[in-house]
Amino acid sequence: MQGERLNKRNAWYQAIWRWHFYAGLIFAPIFIILAVTGSIYLFEPQVTKMQYKDMMTASFTEEQPIEVQKESFMTEYPDAMITSIRLPDEGESTRIGWMNEDEMMYTYIHPETTEVLGTRSAEGSMDLLVVIHGTLLGGQIGSWVVELAASWAIILLITGTFLFWPRGKNPLRMLMPKLGKGRQWWKQMHGSVALWSSLGLVLIISSGLAWSSVSGAMLQWVSSSTNTGAPMYAYAFGTKPESTVTTKDVAEDVPWATQADLVPTSSPSTLLPIDLNQVVNKSTIDRPYTISLPEGETGVYTITSAAGHPFKEATVNLDQYSGETLSSVTYADYGVLGKLITVGIAFHEGRLFGLLNQLVGVALCLGLIFVVISSFVMWRKRRIGSIEQMKRFEDERIKRIVGILILLLGVTLPLAGISILVVLLFDWLVGRRKLKAEVAA
């Protein structure tokens, strides 16, 4: 009886280990790429400020009206089409976004002297890292691969915790690896580092999925359908004209929670549009913030916080003619899902608690790299024969139950769920073929 229970426990362990091992082996290179590019990009704000220090910084005691600063820019670039203006914080210059044919440019203006300090492409020197991090340079297909890998990373962390959990012993033991040598030491370090990193990695990975093609769209749909994201046209007055344009289509520095929010439209009027000075006077958002200019006769002024901290996020739409507030949404207005994802994204980007957040992010990325490397070392030390030996304890019923449990785990991760279904279908077909062969024999 005891031997039967032991064999059954081994069968459960080996069935879960098989999913954990092969998924880790397949996605290991992608995990390394994501960890390396992510850890470097965490410091993008410091790198950009250092690279464009002469443009982005400006000492001033008195600030010229924003229309005066705009006129100084137009003198330099008379044919430019301005799309946005970022109002500076203390010690910063005013940033004007404009289109140079098909390329977005940023020009920086000294707030007091209105001198043009310099112009650069809106695409920063580190933006290539973002493309690699998000798509592996593979476009839409690459983004699906990244999302699939990220989804499986969460499943690997959960299954790994099960595999490493000390059965019948003090659970705290798993947090402190035993000193030793060889494969056993690597196994202890692999499990301990993964467990120490698991909570932070799950937060980073799950918040990153908010930008993904499939999971991100699903999260936006859930947040809108359940009103747990950002309320549509929050705290607005009067009836709102129909609109099919979302905030992310017409504005810069848009918070995640309001990216899919439909933008209200201005009511065409015989009055002239209000100028930027009036927009600034009506703004109640703390600096720095970005004003995205109206597009067409029914466009609106969209004001978004550029402070970077999630609790200061805000999105305000003003009628371009009357200056009336058509909608206003702040972090306090977000639903529970919107707040959770917003905080998660800030942690993901290293913005939640300053430099310490960035260092924690680097530590988690290094932890992920070590987990991947240690798994490879364990695999090499195990040898092929040991892997084949596991088949002696295999229980087909338990193997299928584990597959279904992992499928349920992947229900909230669409691409992972689809990949699990494919594997289960393949396994079922192979099992039927094997059974027919045995019957025929």
TrEMBL record:
Record keywords: Protease included?
Answer: no
One Pfam family in the UniProt entry: PepSY_TM
UniProt keyword annotation of DNA repair present = no
**What are the UniProt keywords, alphabetically?**
Membrane, Transmembrane, Transmembrane helix
Instruction: Provide the transmembrane region boundaries.
Output: 21-43, 144-165, 193-214, 359-380, 401-426
Q: Which PANTHER family match?
A: IRON-REGULATED INNER MEMBRANE PROTEIN-RELATED (PTHR34219), PEPSY DOMAIN-CONTAINING PROTEIN (PTHR34219:SF1)
The protein depicted here goes by the name PepSY domain-containing protein
